[in-house]
Amino acid sequence: MRTIDLRLNGRRERVAVEPHETLLLVLRQRLAATEVKSGCERGDCGACAVILDGRAINSCLTLALQADGKAIQTVRGLGSPEAPHPLQVAFIEAGAAQCGICIPGMLVTLHAFLQERPNPTREEVREAIGGNLCRCTGYQQIIEAIELAARRLRAVNRP
Amino acid sequence: MLLPRFEYRPATSLAQATTLLAERADARLLAGGTDLLVDLRERRQAPGLLVDVSGLPELGGIAVRDGSLWIGGGVTVAELGRAPLVAERAPALHQAARDFADYLTRNRATVGGNLANGSPGADLVVPLLALDTSVVLAGPAGERRVALDDFLEGPRRTALRRGELVRAVVIPQGGGVQSWYKLGLKRGGAIAVVSVATCLRVGTDGRATGAAIALGAVGPRPFRAREAEATLLGTSLDAGRVALAASRAAQAARPISDVRGSAEYRRAMVEALVTRGLGAAR
Questions:
Q1: For the segment B37-66, what is each residue's pLDDT rounded down to a tens digit?
Q2: Cβ contact B149:B224 at 8 Å
Q3: How far is CA B235 from CA B206, B208, B229, in A?
Q4: Coil, strand or helix at B175
Q5: Is A61 in Cβ contact with B34 (below 8 Å)?
Q6: Which domains occur in chain B, in start order?
Q7: pLDDT at position B281
Q8: Nearest residue on chain A to B7, judged by CA atoms?
Q9: Rounded CA gap, B258 and B260, in Å?
Q10: How many other CB atoms sit within 10 Å of the CB of residue B157?
Q11: Closest Cα to residue A63, out of B22, B33, B94, B110?
């Protein structure tokens, strides 16, 4: 066992981990971050996506030890039911969530993506969620939600 | 599902990493982890020690050195796709980086990993091969440089010897008009059915002074279609010549039939995509 320090949604955490434990496992089983979903566990589905030091990544293909000293953001750090993030509001308004298992990974992926690219084309939006599988919606409402959120975020961030 | 147990050492320097890799026969290098951790989970590999080189400064950096484009082995595919220097000097590689796997994977996967993994369809390897790239290997005894064509020894086999890692790739300044095309079964997260990179240099008289055609996923390793290239040199690249070169490239392909496509289909696609790539460059 080795102890790692990380910042989870702004909160300092110290947790003992084994070398072979993935970040996904430690987030869910030690840090109660069950909003991070476990899907394929081989980097194909994006359900386990989190933001690690500003970049969206699959937590199933990252060792917990590799997150030592780093900042992690999950969907819970994005917004809350009382104060949802504009992406979350847009997903609700567009009816972009059905069963919901892909949504936490989808939202953090998009949050990181929109920070890199605040004014994406539709093609870029489609490409950005290429690693996030949704088996319910057919993606149409998701894409509409992203474009709605991007428009609102640009209006808010305009100097 | 749990990964098998292993020891873990974060590398603090290139020298320490290569020494650790040389000392332990059961050590494996960990960079982005996008291939390795899947292999571990599926029990295709069982290393006793992982040496983590992710974030090692000596493996980073994209720069022009002595006229060549130097790209560190630890550079992520996302960094490659964002780099103006790569877009300017190696547009085929830049496009391949943007078509690579998916957004989440690109944030972790590295240039060195794509080479060291030795996949017959490795997306970055095909354009790098067309650009006459050489590979800088670092080991406990120092560095050596090999041509990428010699680095690729076969399926999942490379020139990396015990203790060595991919320090960087070096793309000589060659100029030329480049193209890249990857045919997949879908756009996101696709494995190539066929991939083609071309690079043509044309003299002031309109005749080809250089021609490179690299093919992926249609042989045991990515390779150059040398005979097809030779049919283009010194010609004015008219439609007949391009068709002949494309047909020779298809003959050079040694594809297999698998879940992604039949050998016959792949060969037909080589011909179509080489025609398209050379046409775009004409």
A1: 999 999 999 999 999 999 899 999 999 999
A2: yes
A3: 8, 6, 11
A4: coil
A5: yes
A6: 7-51 (3.30.43), 59-171 (3.30.465.10), 177-281 (3.30.390.50)
A7: 66
A8: A19
A9: 5
A10: 11
A11: B33
Question: By the CB < 8 Å criterion, does B42 face chain A?
Answer: yes
CB distance A137 to A110 below 8 Å: no
Q: Which of A21, A55, A61, A123 to mutate to test the interface with B (most CBs of B within 10 A)?
A: A61
Confirm or reject contact between A57 and chain B (CB < 8 A): yes
Residue stretches of chain A with pLDDT short of 50: none
- Partner-chain contact A132 B189, CB within 8 Å: no
Confirm or reject contact between A48 and chain B (CB < 8 A). Answer: no
Closest by Cβ to B52, choosing from A42, A61, A66: A66
For CATH 3.10.20.30, the residue range(s) in chain A are 2-74
Q: Which amino acid is at B255?
A: P
Check residue B174 and give its pLDDT. 79
Homologous superfamily of domain range A2-74:
Beta-grasp domain (3.10.20.30)
pLDDT at B1: 65
B78 in contact with A, Cβ within 8 Å: yes
| Contact by Cβ (8 Å): A37, A58 | no
CB-CB neighbours of A63 under 10 Å: 28
Of the partner residues A20, A62, A128, the one whose CB lies closest to the CB of residue B5: A20
Class of domain A86-157: mainly alpha
Residues in chain A, total: 159
Residue linked to tokens 């690693």: A131
| A17-42 per-position pLDDT tens digit | 999 999 999 999 999 999 999 999 99
A 95-134 residues with CB < 8 A to B: 109, 113, 126-132
Q: State the ipTM, two decimals.
A: 0.97
Residues in chain B with pLDDT values less than 50: none
Alpha carbon distance B175, B152 (integer Å):
24
Q: Identify residue B248 by its one-letter amino acid code.
A: R
Find tokens 């993606």 and name the residue: A139
Give the pLDDT of residue A153.
94
Q: How far is A22 from chain B (nearest CA, A)?
A: 8
